[in-house]
Automatic annotation (TrEMBL):
This is SLC13 family permease. It is a multi-pass membrane protein. It is found in: Cell membrane. It comes from Micromonospora parva. The keyword Transmembrane helix applies. It comes from the Bacteria. Pfam families: CitMHS. Residues 20-332 form the Citrate transporter-like domain. The keyword Ubl conjugation does not apply.
Amino acid sequence: MKLAAVAPPATPEPTTRWRPHPLDLVAVVLAVVGATCALSGLLPRAETTATLHRILPLLLFLGTVIVLAELTAVAGVFNVLASRLAIASRGRWAALFLLCGGLATLTTLVLNLDTTAVLLTPVLLALARTLRVPAGPLAVTTVWLANTASLLLPVSNLTNLLAADRVGLAPLTYATRMALPQLVAVAVTMALLWFTWWRRDQPTGGRFVPPAAHVPADPVLHRTALAGCLLFIGGILAGVEIGLASTVALALVLVGFVIRSPATLRPGLVPVRLLLFVTGLFLVVQTLGRHGLDDLVGTLLGADGDALGALRAGGTGALLANALNNLPAYLAGESVLPGGDATRLLALLIGTNVGPLAAPWASLATLLWFERCRAARVTVPVTRFVLTSTLLAVTGTLGAVGALLLVS
């Protein structure tokens, strides 16, 4: 009698254990420490309430704009824009570099740096996938110019609004004062972008094959998401509070997805990690300010009001931004500088705008950029990014502060 072959038992597939991302752990630790500071009395209740009241609009903006970007990416808006950008460059790598850099600069100047980080980063990441080129140069373009191109107008950066109000400058006067520093900061950024990222990773012969125009899978969702983005941008240009603009835009896009693709909507779209991180960061920094940070900042800034004092202010802003975050760094420096010292206040602003590049928490735009890269599963070489970003932070801050001294 012939026996039938018995198949060996199937080997069970190994289960993949969930491991938290390092930034998840940082966010949780910051949130716990911040809550401890508030509940223990290290940060008085009145200051805790004031801090939370101040950051609630920021948290609303963060939560809504990231979900907006996620859904916009699903709708194919970024793929369409990326393909058109590549077609416009006619297959020339250098032309693509100038187009991407110019678009990032314009977006940051006219809208603000967070818009560049959230909405433009996915465009360039989609472009890298379409062209099958390394994503690093295109990704770094958005985060660098989101920070360094945010000096010219008060609306370009929240810190600009704080600085313009403190020194009493009208928007036009402020822009005139910061025009040369802005030009220098962008020039330094573009030069370093080309020589440290774009030229090194350019395709053979500096040319690529332009792709065909991308056709979205669901034209109705595509048009709805595009309308949401345009509504968001229009709201910012009209002076609508940024959290309100992002909320209304997201509401429109959500309606489209509820009707056309409800399965896309899931709790994981909400950036819980980032919200915990920002809340904890502000509470911790506010507590540190009461217990010695303000004194340390005063020592770093010194009492000199001349060119050396301006350079110290810019350097202190950049250093603290990378150690903490640029917004609390600016607030800490502003609190110890006299209101009439416009040059040092603007130098501090330059340091907190141009300098926060080396650390992922250094600015809100950098945090948003990391989130966009993570969502797109794009990994930028860490060592190369930190080294080149530190070089830009130093040279960009020095160049922009020097330009400020020329027009002061």
